[in-house]
Every structure is written in structure tokens, then in C-alpha cells.
Amino acid sequence: MHEAVKDWLAQCRDKLRTEAITAADLDRLDDLLAEPRQQILYLYAKSTNMRSPLASWALYDATQPQMPTLPSDESPYESVLAAVADG
């Protein structure tokens, strides 16, 4: 994020030489400074082995309405180990 803000500052300094900074410029800075919201992925494996296939999963996103939803038909990962490897 810091690099993006530095780039924004450099662009605005250049822009100030020829024109004014606009509300859209400030909106872009606001977007750059916004903290990303954490999403939580719950994984339920078919056994305690981290390589076993997933039985079910659920995604929790605090920015979305809290309504019960069914998971998609396709698993986001092959196993818990694959999810951990992805980060």
C-alpha cells in the first residue's frame, strides 16, 4: 500500500504543476488508504489428514449481509494442505 500512496503523491505533485487536484484524485487516495477487510474461509475435511478431500466449506465476509448461503458446487481447494500452501 505504501508504494501505491507514494505513486499517488508523485502523480499529484506533477498534476499540481499544470492543474488542480480534483475530488476524484482524493477519492483514489481514500481507496488506497482503505484497510482491506478480512475474509474467513472455513474448511471441513473428510478426515484429520490435511491431504484428505474437503467435505464442505463456507466463506465468511463481514462486508456482505449475514444470510445463510450454500457453498458452491466446486471446492475452492483440493485439500486443507492445498489451502495452506496458497496462503
Tags for this entry?
87 residues, 2 domains, two-stranded antiparallel ribbon, alpha+beta, 17% strand, 40% helix
Q: Write out the strand line-up for the largest beta sheet, numbering strands in chain order.
A: 1-2
**Helix amount, in percent?**
40-55%
Beta strands, count: 2
Integer tally of domains:
2
Q: How would you describe what is shown here?
A:
With 87 residues, this protein is α+β, with helices and mostly antiparallel strands. The chain folds into 2 domains: 2-33, no CATH class; 39-86, no CATH class. It is built from 3 helices and 2 strands; from the N terminus they run ααββα. It has helices at 2-18, 23-33, 80-86, and strands spanning 39-45, 54-61. Strands 1-2 form a two-stranded antiparallel ribbon. A hairpin with an 8-residue loop joins strand 1 (39-45) and strand 2. Helix 1 (2-18) packs antiparallel against helix 2. It is elongated, with a radius of gyration of 21 Å. The chain starts with a helix and ends with a helix.
